[in-house]
């Protein structure tokens, strides 16, 4: 009887998750990842209680529902962020890109006044999603030596992080990394290509345990 209840519960949760993902493939990705994680966790608990299969099934259903919710919230956040800065969806979450020429003067790591305004607008959106985990990466172009570019990229990433935190993003959820001239968007040695490569990217991933409970209802 307990097995039948577990299966019925799992089926209901999976059905709800499928309905949610019909309109959005990104939400479906979140559901799939959540289901996989939930299945593993459920199988471990099930093994400890002598009900491995039932535990995996229920864990997959619950994990899928949480994963779908995470994906749905990322989609919603993307729509808000892309009104302010270029934002794209990835397998892991979101990436918001800020051009360094807009943020900083050449060779400097002090934010321009307009950049402060833009970052504050981004922070106002990001702090509405407590599950966010931010990695702020600074990039330079390939002109100049690494001994200059590497610390400059770190300082720029830290400047963006400080402003996000100042505007209300929890400090513990944001990390700054200097990438120097690594991972260029355009490898060409032209002025236009180098302008693309000078940037700060905010990578957003999700800690599903911090999704507000009311959002999952």
TrEMBL record:
<keyword id="KW-0472">Membrane</keyword>
<dbReference type="InterPro" id="IPR006664">
    <property type="entry name" value="OMP_bac"/>
</dbReference>
<keyword id="KW-0998">Cell outer membrane</keyword>
<feature type="signal peptide">
    <location>
        <begin position="1"/>
        <end position="20"/>
    </location>
</feature>
<dbReference type="InterPro" id="IPR039567">
    <property type="entry name" value="Gly-zipper"/>
</dbReference>
<dbReference type="Pfam" id="PF00691">
    <property type="entry name" value="OmpA"/>
</dbReference>
<dbReference type="GO" id="GO:0009279">
    <property type="term" value="C:cell outer membrane"/>
</dbReference>
<feature type="domain" description="OmpA-like">
    <location>
        <begin position="91"/>
        <end position="208"/>
    </location>
</feature>
<dbReference type="InterPro" id="IPR006665">
    <property type="entry name" value="OmpA-like"/>
</dbReference>
<dbReference type="InterPro" id="IPR036737">
    <property type="entry name" value="OmpA-like_sf"/>
</dbReference>
<dbReference type="Pfam" id="PF13488">
    <property type="entry name" value="Gly-zipper_Omp"/>
</dbReference>
<keyword id="KW-0732">Signal</keyword>
<dbReference type="InterPro" id="IPR050330">
    <property type="entry name" value="Bact_OuterMem_StrucFunc"/>
</dbReference>
<protein>
    <recommendedName>
        <fullName>OmpA-like domain-containing protein</fullName>
    </recommendedName>
</protein>
């Amino acid at each position: 009887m307990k097995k039948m209840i577990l299966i019925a519960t799992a089926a209901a949760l999976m059905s709800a998750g499928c309905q949610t993902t019909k309109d959005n493939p990104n939400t479906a990705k979140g559901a799939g990842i959540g289901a996989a994680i939930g299945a593993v966790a459920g199988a471990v608990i099930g093994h400890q209680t002598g009900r491995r299969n039932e535990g995996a099934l229920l864990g997959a259903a619950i994990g899928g529902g949480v994963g779908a919710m995470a994906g749905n919230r990322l989609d919603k956040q993307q729509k808000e962020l892309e009104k302010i800065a270029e934002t794209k969806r990835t397998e892991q979450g979101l990436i918001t890109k800020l051009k360094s020429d807009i943020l900083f003067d050449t060779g400097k790591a002090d934010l321009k006044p307009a950049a402060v305004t833009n970052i504050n607008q981004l922070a106002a959106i990001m702090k509405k999603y407590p599950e966010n985990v931010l990695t702020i990466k600074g990039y330079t172009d390939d002109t100049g030596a690494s001994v200059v570019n590497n610390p400059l990229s770190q300082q720029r990433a830290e400047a963006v992080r400080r402003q996000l935190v100042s505007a209300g993003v929890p400090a513990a959820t944001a990390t700054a990394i200097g990438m120097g001239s690594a991972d260029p968007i355009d490898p060409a040695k032209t002025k236009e290509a180098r302008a693309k490569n000078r940037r700060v990217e905010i990578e957003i991933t999700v800690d599903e345990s911090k999704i507000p409970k009311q959002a999952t209802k």
